[in-house]
Amino acid sequence: MRLSRKFRDALNRAAQKECRTVASLLNKVIADYLEKEGYLLKSEFEEERREFPREKINLPVLTFPEGELKSAAFPGVVLDVSMGGVLLTYAKGTEIRFTSKGGLPYFKVCLGLPKAEKQLSLDCVARHMRDIGSEIQVGTSFDHPSKSDLQELSSYLIRRIHEGRSTVRGVNRLHYK
Fold first, then answer.
1. Which letter does DSSP use for residue 52 in this model?
2. Pick the CATH number of 55-162 from 1.10.10.10, 2.60.40.420, 2.40.10.220, 3.50.50.60
3. Digitized pLDDT (tens) for each residue of the chain, 177 residues in all
4. Residue 78 burial class via C-beta count within 10 angstroms: exposed 0-12, middle 13-18, buried 19 and up
């Protein structure tokens, strides 16, 4: 798309304010318009766009907003996980503050998966943040996860499938790169 510098700068500011990428913001604006004008039903454009399916879980997590294990840790809960990221939630009164490099907030999360050999320590980039009343939800993607962390996460997700506890159906993309 060709846009003037003023439009691009305004889009970047708007995306940063919404804690989204420019592509995500444009997708939302276009989808909202198409739905409002009756060109598409919401169900027609809500297809899964993620590379990996999400597994619904409920596990405690510690978040280090400055990306350093030495910084203050904030407790939260992982609501779902995939090979590409996690959905986190924090109580509304939590004093967590995210820092950003180049626009989107980044931070480190540490979580222990059931039956895992080690605790995972993953660098994350926020993709969206939502205020849902009593909670703040943060959707993330992993930023250069280690091969060992991905192997541990893959093993956990595969175990859930074999134990019949998986919330994902038809999972065939639990590989790691």
1. S
2. 2.40.10.220
3. 788 999 889 988 888 777 677 887 888 888 888 888 888 776 655 555 556 777 888 899 998 876 566 667 888 999 998 899 999 998 877 776 655 555 567 788 999 888 777 889 999 988 887 778 888 888 888 999 999 999 999 888 888 777 776 555 444 444 444
4. buried
